[in-house]
Write a structure and sequence with these properties.
The protein is α/β, with parallel strands linked by helices. The chain folds into two domains: 5-112 and 297-314, Nucleotidyltransferase, domain 5 (2-Layer Sandwich); 126-291, Nucleotidyltransferase, domain 5, CATH 3.30.420.40. The protein is 37% helix and 20% strand. It has nine helices and twelve strands. The strands form three sheets. The chain has a five-stranded mixed β-sheet, with helices on both faces. The protein is globular. It starts with a strand and ends in a 5-residue tail after the last helix. The relative contact order is 0.15.
């Protein structure tokens, strides 16, 4: 069947991944390049064009009816531009226009990477079957996306659900975003490690000071490492409960490197959530690990493109 596939791009500070994806979320063709994140904007775009070029060279390309992009942010879907914090050469970069040209004029849908992951988890992962969900990534940063009323809600610019920059500590540490006490400033991997080190935790003989090393120490019972994870869990619980209270989600899905800590994170998070999600309509809120893994960004970008095509068809403007 013609146009039964969509193309997808997942653009981050480390890699630019591309795929052709079918309507069941299966990845049929892949392409990837390292992100030349510290180079100028045109050099980064060249890597994107190479990934798109690999996809267009596939015999399956003729079946692609749209292209979805999940990009590190901030993004501005209304303007078709991106300004990723971790790609300094791109500031208000006209990514949609450039990708559309590279893809031979296909319709292009742009969302932030957190929104893309929410789309993936709702379509194929841990939020499947839930009409109202928050899906999060807790890693080097903290991002997220929302599903409301059964549909992905990306907001006017494609950034809705960015829970990492909800302030949960009014007089907290300054965050690079300009605010204070943001969830990300407390709960991201680097900040979990920073807090542990500042509180007296010391790494083992290998000198590893990552959040994964702190998690290992916490599993072994180190009280300082445990306290750092409990603080992160409290910040996440406060942000999740605030979101649930505002828009009535019933599930929060958490992925990313920090979520791989398992019960070191999830046990104190579920305890703390009981202290924050207290109103009757949020008391049944559950928190679960993400299921989609490293393909979440690609599958979510594909889901966003499929959703856009379905919306256009329903409005009678194409299919």
């Amino acid at each position: 069947m013609q146009n039964d596939l969509v193309a997808a791009l997942d653009i981050g500070g480390t890699k630019i991944a591309g795929a052709l994806v079918d309507s069941d979320g299966r990845i049929l063709v892949r392409a990837q390049r390292p992100t030349p994140a510290q180079e100028d904007g045109e050099t980064v775009m060249r890597a994107v064009s190479e990934v798109v070029g690999e996809l267009t060279a596939s015999p399956l390309w003729a079946r692609a009816g749209a292209l979805g992009i999940g990009s590190a942010g901030p993004v501005d879907a209304s303007a078709g531009t991106v300004s990723p914090v971790n790609v300094p050469g791109w500031r208000d970069f006209p990514l949609v226009e450039r990708v559309r040209a590279a893809a031979g004029g296909l319709p292009v849908e742009l969302v932030g990477d957190g929104v893309a992951i929410a789309a993936a988890e709702h379509w194929q992962g841990a939020a499947r079957g839930h009409d109202n969900a928050l899906c999060m990534v807790v890693s080097t940063g903290v991002g997220g996306g929302l599903v409301l009323g059964g549909s992905l809600y990306s907001g006017p610019t494609g950034n809705a659900g960015h829970i990492g920059h909800i302030s949960v500590q009014l007089d907290g540490d300054p965050c690079p975003c300009g605010a204070r006490g943001c969830v990300e400033r407390i709960a991201s991997g680097p900040n979990i490690a920073r807090r542990a080190l500042e509180s007296g935790w010391r790494p083992g003989p290998d000198g590893d000071t990552s959040a994964a090393a702190v998690a290992e120490a916490a599993r072994a019972g180190d009280p300082v490492a445990l306290a750092s994870f409990e603080r992160a869990a409290q910040a996440l619980a406060a942000g999740i409960a605030a979101t649930a209270t505002l828009v009535e989600i019933d599930i929060a899905v958490i992925g990313g490197g920090v979520a791989k800590s398992g019960d070191v994170l999830f046990a104190p998070l579920r305890r703390a959530l009981r202290d924050y999600a207290t109103l009757s309509f949020v008391q049944q809120l559950t928190v679960v690990p993400a299921l989609m893994g490293t393909d979440a960004g690609l599958v979510g970008a594909a889901a966003a493109a499929l959703g856009s095509r379905a919306g256009a068809a329903a409005a009678g403007v194409g299919g």
